[in-house]
Design brief:
Elements lengths: L15 H8 L7 E2 L3 E2 L2 E6 L11 E5 L9 E2 L2 E2 L2 E7 L11 E6 L2 E6 L4 E6 L2 E7 L2 H10 L1 E2 L22 H9 L28
Antiparallel strand pairs: 1-12, 2-3, 3-4, 4-7, 5-6, 7-11, 8-9, 9-10, 10-11
Amino acid sequence: MLAAACSTHQVPPISTTSLDLARAYKSYTVWWAGRDVDGAPLTQATTPTDFYSAVGFQMFYGNCGSRGALHDNGCRLPLKITTNIYSPHSDASFGPQRWITLHGVPAVVYHGGTDIEIYTDKMDVDIIADTPRRAMDAANALKPFNRGVSPEDPAFPQPYYTPNPPQQLLNAIATGATGTTGTTGDLSPPDGLEPTTAAQGGS
């Protein structure tokens, strides 16, 4: 299904039926940036039947172009937004970065501004775009996708964890010394789980 977002021909915006199917996912809150970001329409989204926890819930915007900074086996997408349950990790591997506040919660901007990770509730929201402007426009447009918003359930609750924990705490988590479980990780799912042009016949 997600492979269609990475075909080389024009991909239409996601249908209302597919959007409703994706919105049926209720295991945790998912965030999105609406149906269009700077001219790139939402073309595909994870559904409850194809959700894989190691990858997270993904929203794909736009179509493939030439190889570039954001590519998967020849596929370049304007924007991808992934919501996942936060797994403790150091942000040092992100390289040069700057910390900001978005929607009242902490976020880190890196890779020259094309990547943004936002920390909220028990999740993190990862934005990967082809330009810094599109990444920031997507970040500013973020809102819950599969739930409503109320004073009791705000759009962006404060994180229940400390982003970018010190290495000593990461070591303790990895060995179970804190009484909790978790592993360090990065933002990228396994290559085999990303959409590829070789599989563009999927629907």
